[in-house]
Amino acid sequence: MLPSPESGSEIIVIGGGNAALCAAMSAAEAGARVQLLEAAPRPCRGGNSRHTRNFRCMHKAPNAVLTDVYGEEEYFDDLLKVTAGHTDERLAKLVIRASEGCYAWMQAHGVYFQPSLSGALSLARTNAFFLGGGTALLNAYYRKARALGVTILYEAEVSHLDVQEDKVRELVFTHEGRSRRISPRAVIAASGGFESNPGWLAEAWGPAAKNFITRGTAYNQGMVLKDLLDQGAQSVSDPAQCHAVAIDGRAPKFDGGIVTRLDCVPFSIVVNKNAARFYDEGEDVWPKRYAIWGRLVAAQPDQIAYAIIDSTSLELFMPSVFPPEKADTIEELAVKLGLPPQKLSQTVNAYNAACAPGRFHPSEMDGLATKGLTPPKSNWARALTTPPFYGYSLRTGITFTYLGLKVDEKARVQGANGAVENLWAAGEIMAGSILGQGYLAGIGMTIGTVFGRIAGQEAANYVR
Amino acid sequence: MSGDIMLETRRQIGICNACRYCEGYCSVFPSINLKRNISDADILNLANLCHNCRGCYYACQYIEPHEFALNLPKILAELRQKSWRDHVWPAAFSSIFHSGAMAAGGALIAGFALFIWQARMLRPESGEGFYAAISHAMLLALFLPAFMFALFSVAISLRRYWKSIGGGRISPGDFLFALRMAAGMRDLSGGHGQGCNYEDQDRYSNARRWFHQAAMYGFGLCFAATCAGTVLHYGFDLKAPYALTSLPKLLGISGGVLLCAGTLGLGWLKLKADRNLGAAALWGGEMAFVVLLFTVSLSGLALAAFAANGLTGFLLPLHLGAVLAFFLLVPYSKMIHGFYRFAALLHDAARSRSA
Predict the structure, then answer these.
(1) Domain count of chain B?
(2) Measured between CB atoms, which of A131, A135, A320 is closest to B24?
(3) What is the ipTM metric for this complex?
(4) Which parts of A26-84 are beta strand (E)?
(5) CB-based burial of residue A54 (10 Å sphere; 0-12 exposed, 13-18 middle, 19+ buried)?
(6) How many CB pairs under 8 A join A and B?
(7) Which residues of A446-456 are buried (b: 16+ CB within 10 A; e: fewer)?
(8) How far is A266 from chain B (nearest CA, A)?
(9) Are residues B65 and B149 in the same domain?
(10) Cα–Cα nearest to A33, from A7, A3, A9
(11) Which residues of B touch A17 (CB under 8 A)?
(12) Which tens digit of pLDDT belongs to each residue from A438-458?
């Protein structure tokens, strides 16, 4: 007879992404018997981690893949800039300092690194890229976890943690259609945010949410997060905060990942479904404006927008997976995109008339701005006059949500009356403490790795 | 159908070009990223650059059940096979690729029968060692045309392929680069020496690389043994049988052992690997070719070991039959991959240089 899954495990890890695996491996290495409950089926395992490609790593000297140096102060400054100060300095600095040691730890657990990808060279100094990306990293971690004796259940969905007197007494989950109740000695919640839960998104965003696309996993339903918040766990950030970018409007509803991103905005004019412009497309260099366009598009009618370029810009940005619509005239392009042709033609003409000659430089703020146009385009404003013309539809793509559990520096979840004795959290479910808003490329994987390791070690110490 | 393979490959590498996570694995991905609008000719060459290491498949976030349904190793294997068929000379022989298992088996049996018959009917009146069963003139009369025909056929196929991919001038640097890549099987190294994801899903392993090296260098040594024998025969009038410490024997036995181990290992790995990540329809033919090479090496070694024991009557026809079958099938079987792959590496080196 097979042992029942609940027998013998001291620690239950909820989730199957980077943070969950770092926690499971760390706890197992510290001698604990660990079971990991992943909600997704085997081919979809790994949450959003399988779409990642790098982690942000502090380093005092160059190594095989990271150039130059990236110190604690600079790292923290970068974080302050993107979060506008919405960060817990103590936890943030803990993550930053620990990130340095993660590199070797990850290698020791089967991860290979590669030099920065072509098209992402701006991150060569700060971010270490995983060979093959996040899915390859997860494959290595799952193998390592199994080798360390961690048992793994797929399609195991946790619905409830019974917290009584600041202690998790029972855990309820379904597996293979059966509801199970177990009483582990310790629990690590690493089950992500709620970006795949349309109901919850609609609560936070209103009916507009139905037109959002989730860039990552379909399995981040936020059930554990909601269950714990309902039982009085302290929260960080708020439900309306999420990382939202403008992606190709033809992207699949879930798991479109990296290939649906569109970097054409600075070289485009962007119009809404009424063919009217609504924001300065050339406000700043794209990496600094990338994350505001999700919200901008979300605020437009039907949550859709269209980026229009001409043939001179087609090769200035990383390609999306979907080819653009193409036409020899603006009116024809409008018809193909489903926009009012007269109106789009007027918008383009007004924009073209406001463009002035000057030096165009695609990779820096060139100051080539429109004159007398509202809203203005402050850089890269070249008239759209060279056919063929191309158009992409844009939708709001949600990468992750920020609402999370408050934790201390030991990753312990804070209940109404202080720390819950046997409950730790790691990854997206607690990242809002450090990342209150905005985003710093690769820091999600850093937070998951650092807090996953802490949670695993602390939980193992607790059960020993 | 044939047009669909190119279209489907184009669709898949379009996704790869927008993702780029696999850049570090092998030559294929940097080659995909080289140009925004990749030509059919370049895609064709990608198919022959791919060594089917499968690292990209297991790392992919877009394999099924994802709707993008990427399976790059498989579609490139299918396109690769198609490129061999499309360029083969004579064109009428292209169907041999499809009936690979039957062709290899049939050729082996026919070869075996031929040499049994030869030994019965045309046995030389005198001769030492193997020459007691088959005269040197007869060996030459059978093998030289087979070898020359294979060589000629491969040369024409390659010329056609080179034209299809738009191959141009090659610099000495390109040649050295391609030689280094092939000699070290760098494209099976996984980019960091960790190897492939071949026989045990996503686990990295160098087993396939080492077995392939054994087979490749083993084959090279066997070929060198034949050349050494030829030189001794004609240049120095030293005729077989050769002593154990002679150059042909030393080269032949070490090569035979390597080829034997390599093909055995490759066949074993092939049994364990997921057939859906290669050209599944041609699996049997590829396997048959591995078995044929294994037969060549094992029967050769057995001959060296048991020549004095009277088994020659069976082993010699088997070995000669296998070698003849092998030569005849080189242009129409998996064996052709080595020539195309080297051409692909050459062209890619030149293309990267001029980009």
Answers:
(1) 2
(2) A131
(3) 0.94
(4) 34-37, 54-56
(5) buried
(6) 95
(7) bbbbbbbbbbb
(8) 18
(9) no
(10) A9
(11) none
(12) 889 999 999 999 999 999 999
